[in-house]
Amino acid sequence: MTDQSRGQPVFVICGKGGVGKTVFTALFLKTLLEEDLKPLLLIDADPAGGLVYALDERATKTLTEVRDELVNAARSAGETEKESLARSLDYMLMEALVERTGYSLLAMGRDKKVGCYCPANTLLRDAINSVSDAFAAVVIDAEAGLEQINRRVTRNATHTIVITDGSLRILATLESITGMVNKGQIFVVQNMTDGQTAAGVPEGTVFAGSIPADNELREFDRAGRSLRELPAENATVLAMKDIAARIIGWETIDA
Predict the structure, then answer these.
(1) 2, 20, 98 from 105: Cα distances, Å
(2) I need a surface site. Which of 50, 52, 189, 229 has the fewest CB within 10 A?
(3) Could you tell me if residue 64 is inside a domain?
(4) 194, 22 Cβ separation under 8 angstroms
């Protein structure tokens, strides 16, 4: 397992929209749980909220809703009440936490309002960092593109995992991401490919492997079934075990 003496691992999965990062995140979670790296904090940081569906989950409250409650309450509160709000934020986060065996899930949610909420966002980010201390590792399904990386939302990442489909336009995005990440190791995973190739992977990154296109996975996705229910012999599940071993540094992972 990971060496906890070197700190809590924070895995950030990113890439352009449509390359399959949410599918990867669900399969990565499945592998980590089966290898007994738990409890895990799973953060669906994509406003579209695809991960909750890939796991057949539903969030009763999102982080955006918690943030908006905080903003609305702070507008009419005095200094004493604002201090009380800050202290109650952990409780507000716990209300948004979906707790399951081996992991808990927080969903970002879609922001429908216009305006600057920087102080509230900072407070919320710090509270999430505090909550995450109780977990063995954090897995973040980041928003598609470069926005969250550019704003350093994922600045605590120890492992940045970039999902690509091998196309030139995706590789251009990959080069941009590698230029923004200044902490931890960057791994590249090719999704929906016929074979493994490290061609075009930027210097300074690690090619972790490829995930094949798979009809069984597509059927699960179309039916809204949790990808955690995929059988052990499924091709994508087997590929993920090898990829996870390279990313985390396990010498072996039992099939």
Answers:
(1) 21, 19, 5
(2) 229
(3) no
(4) no
Nearest to 110 by CA among 157, 68, 161, 162: 68
Angle between helices 63-75 and 118-132 (to 10 degrees): 130
Number of domains the chain is built from: 1
Q: What is the largest CA-CA distance in the chain?
A: 61
Whether residue 103 is contained in a domain is answered as yes
User: DSSP states of 212-227 as a string?
Assistant: ---HHHHHHHHHT--G
Judged by DSSP in three states, 143 sits in coil
Is the C-alpha dihedral spanning 188, 194, 196, 197 positive or negative?
Answer: negative
Q: Specify if 244 maps to a domain.
A: yes
185-227 pLDDT tens trace: 889 898 877 665 655 677 778 889 999 989 999 999 889 899 9
Residue 69 within a domain: no
157-169, pLDDT tens digit by residue?
889 898 887 666 6
Q: Examine the pLDDT at 80 and tell me if it is beyond 90.
A: no
| Residue 217's CATH number | 3.40.50.300
Domain span holding position 201: 4-59+99-113+135-248
Alpha-carbon distances of 177 from 9, 15, 149, 161, 199, rounded to whole Å: 19, 8, 7, 10, 17
